[in-house]
TrEMBL record:
It comes from Cyprinus carpio. This is Signal transducer and activator of transcription. The lineage of its organism: Eukaryota, Metazoa, Chordata, Craniata, Vertebrata. Transmembrane segments: none annotated. GO terms for cellular component: cytosol; nucleus. It is found in: Cytoplasm; Nucleus. One of its GO terms (molecular function) is DNA-binding transcription factor activity.
Length: 723
């Protein structure tokens, strides 16, 4: 509310500029009575260029309406009665205006608050009365802003009419296709018996006649809609041209004249903010109308109907182009003609040639669909950016691979190009930039290897390198830093890899048994060790194993990692050494050495085959597939012999909040909802392998049988038991 208090103290031109911010689109009374609420909302947190943010804007709109209604309800007495009616009217008006496009409300309020803040700041910093912005009379400001409001309403009106035309035309096409279908049915009647043909032909002819009458009438209606819409666009463009003349030929020329006089010692010419805001509004209005006209052209081409509309559209196109040209060429301050950006995929060799300024025109290594995009201006940041929302790779041309290089090691890059002009084509710039390297894959199974290539390149490439040279070997601590960064990012956790975790990874990467971190500080690891050669005794690489851990964690076990419940990076011997000093029922969770993306439960318990002896058991690893059926917390809860999470935490304290609530026994349709539970048998169990690991297949078979039984209606279950 502090900003509004200061804004009310503005004087002279600053006060007039502040007042010009308000109108039917946002009444000044709303700003006054909801000042504190408006200034407390997170308007700047909403990205106006992101349509997915619309739900946030909708919440702000709903909140604004509720605050207005609440303020209206609290008005009492004779004076309060009139204000109550007025505020209620504003609530209805704003809801009607912004409900279809809540982001426009955010844009409006952000502009108001930003401008007020600027005006207050300028007033506090002003050193003399003559340093104010554009000198204008209240009548002139009011007239310009009223005209903009009128143009906004007219443009919204034609947008609504265009949507109505589009919907009517779509329905017309559907009905026209229906008439073609009926005609096809009539043509096929020749192959059926005469008696049946006469009966069916009569009904089809009747439907056809009715539909043809409707189509004729609707075609005339569509033509009328097109004609009326074109005439409305004519009136809008005429008013746009008039408004543009006032701003450019009057206001801008006056500003330039004051600038001339200032060069001779006259008063300052003032700021350009108001002129720029007006010109940006003009550009937006012109562009919206141009887009609408283009859409009408598309509809006309989609469904040609003879009439004068085509000639009118040609005239409208020429008019709007002339207006745009006048706006761009008449002033340098709003040259907002957005350049186009083109994207092309090129190979590593082509990228090298490009940086050497060799002729690579029209060279590419594939075909990208939707690779042209118009850059968009972001008012809040003052930047131009392009969003390739539908770009996709249709075809790729691979080069000959070198040695043991696989397709997932071949690097490409996306070349972005743009050309734009400054000063009415006086200067033309052709700019190019390369994306970071990309790897093209054709199947999801190649994703982890491609990710390894990109990770290695991002982590170890040097500034200014020749594309895309990276070292074949790096120090182990360098790789540790990259792995830790990747792990924390993917798992979205502040808990990264500890020193013990990194020692475990070093042991795995180098097939070493040393537990001393210092032993690995000066060791180097090659790309082949990282993701080309399989680990000893395994059919997967070091990276593939580590990437499997990441996938498992981020999909199912993120919360447990953040809680510290998963030690993870331990081998079987380490787990045994840790558990044997703990009471029976103590367990820990470690990542499987033998399976990608697997995690196992190790626990200490009595040896059922040898009295008085204890041993450590290891459950066969769980994978993503298993946790899609039943969560880790539920599985641990099911196993009653698991009592304490290492070192000594009761398992309920750690996992109970993640467990699935028990199902109610009675269901309204007579069925009991099935439930799968983890079961492990220990004593003389055939599922026990030679290394103390359990196979869950028989356990799951038992669960499936229970599930099939529970799928039967309750009466059938009980009657079957009684018989």
């Amino acid at each position: 509310m502090a900003l509004w208090i200061q804004a009310q103290q503005l004087q002279g031109d600053a006060l007039l500029q502040m007042q010009s911010l308000y109108g039917q689109h946002f009444p000044i009374e709303v700003r006054h009575y909801l000042a504190q609420w408006l200034e407390a909302q997170p308007w700047d947190a909403i990205d106006l260029e992101n349509q997915q943010e619309e739900f946030k804007a909708k919440r702000l709109l709903d909140g604004l309406i509720q605050e207005l209604q609440k303020k209206a309800e609290h008005q009492m007495g004779e004076d309060g009665f009139l204000l109550k009616i007025k505020l209620g009217h504003y609530a209805t008006q704003l809801k009607s205006s912004y409900d279809p496009c809540p982001l426009e409300l955010v844009r409006c309020v952000k502009h108001i608050l930003y401008t007020e803040q600027r005006l207050v700041q300028e007033a506090s910093n002003a050193s003399s009365p003559g340093s104010g912005p554009v000198d204008g009379t209240p009548q002139k400001y009011q007239q310009i802003n009223q005209t903009f409001e009128e143009l906004r309403v007219m443009t919204q009106d034609t947008e609504n009419d265009l949507r109505k035309l589009q919907h009517s035309q779509e329905y017309f096409i559907i009905q026209y296709q229906e008439s073609l279908r009926i005609q096809a049915q009539l043509s096929s009647l020749a192959s059926i018996p005469p008696a049946e043909r006469v009966q069916r032909e009569s009904g089809l002819q009747s439907r056809k006649s009715t539909l043809e009458v409707w189509l004729t009438r609707e075609a005339n209606t569509l033509q009328k809609y097109r004609q009326e819409l074109a005439e409305k666009h004519q009136r809008t463009l005429a008013l746009l041209r008039k408004q543009q003349t006032v701003i450019i030929d009057d206001e801008l020329i006056q500003w330039k004249r004051r600038q001339q006089l200032a060069g001779n010692g006259g008063p300052s010419e003032g700021g350009l903010d108001i002129l720029q805001a007006w010109c940006e509004k003009l550009a937006d209005m012109i562009w919206q109308n141009r887009q609408q006209i283009r859409r009408v052209e598309h509809l006309t081409q989609q469904l040609p109907i003879p009439g004068p509309t085509e000639e009118l559209l040609t005239e409208l196109n020429a008019t709007v182009t002339d207006i745009i040209s006048a706006l761009v060429t008449s002033t340098f301050i709003i040259e907002k003609q957005p350049p186009q950006v083109k994207a092309t995929i090129i190979s590593e060799q082509q990228a090298k040639a490009l940086l050497k300024n060799e002729n690579t025109r029209n060279d590419s290594s594939g075909e990208i669909l939707n690779n042209n995009c118009v850059m968009e201006y972001h008012q809040t940041t003052g930047t131009l950016s392009a969003h390739f929302r539908t770009m996709s790779l249709k075809r790729i041309k691979r080069s000959d691979r070198r040695g043991a290089e696989s397709v997932t090691e071949e690097k490409f890059t996306v070349l972005f190009e743009s050309q734009f002009s400054v000063g009415g084509n006086e200067l033309v710039f052709h700019v190019k930039t390369l994306s970071l390297p990309v790897v093209v894959i054709v199947h999801g199974s190649q994703d982890n290897n491609a990710t390894a290539t990109v990770l290695w390149d991002n982590a170890f490439s040097e500034p200014g390198r020749v594309p895309f040279v990276v070292p074949d070997k790096v120090l182990w601590p360098q790789l540790c830093e990259a792995l830790n960064m990747k792990y924390k990012s993917e798992v979205q956790s502040d808990r990264g890899l500890s020193e013990d975790n990194l020692v475990f990874l070093a042991q795995k990467a180098f097939s070493s048994s040393s537990n001393n971190p210092e032993d690995y500080c000066n060791m180097t690891i090659s790309w082949s060790q990282f993701n080309r050669e399989s680990l000893p005794g395994r059919n997967f690489t070091f990276w593939q194993w580590f990437d499997g851990v990441i996938e498992l964690m981020k999909k199912h076990l993120k919360s447990h990692w953040n809680d510290g419940a998963i030690l993870g990076f331990l081998n079987k011997q380490q787990a045994q050494d840790m558990l044997m000093s703990k009471p029976n029922g103590t367990f820990l969770l470690r990542f499987s050495d033998s399976e990608i993306g697997g995690i196992t439960i190790a626990w200490v318990a009595e040896n059922p085959n040898k009295a008085g002896e204890r041993m450590v058991w290891n459950l066969m690893p769980f994978t993503t597939k298993d946790f899609s059926i039943r969560s880790l917390a539920d599985r641990i809860s099911d196993l009653n012999h698991l009592l304490f999470l290492y070192p000594n935490q009761p398992k309920e304290e750690v996992f109970s909040r993640y467990c699935t609530p028990p199902n109610s026994k009675a269901v309204g349709d007579g069925y009991v909802k099935p439930e799968i539970k983890q079961v492990v048998k220990v004593e003389n169990d055939p599922m026990l392998d030679t290394e103390g690991e359990f196979d869950l297949e028989e356990t799951m078979d038992m669960a499936r049988q229970v599930e099939e039984f529970l799928r039967q209606p309750m009466e059938t279950q009980w009657s079957g038991q009684q018989s």
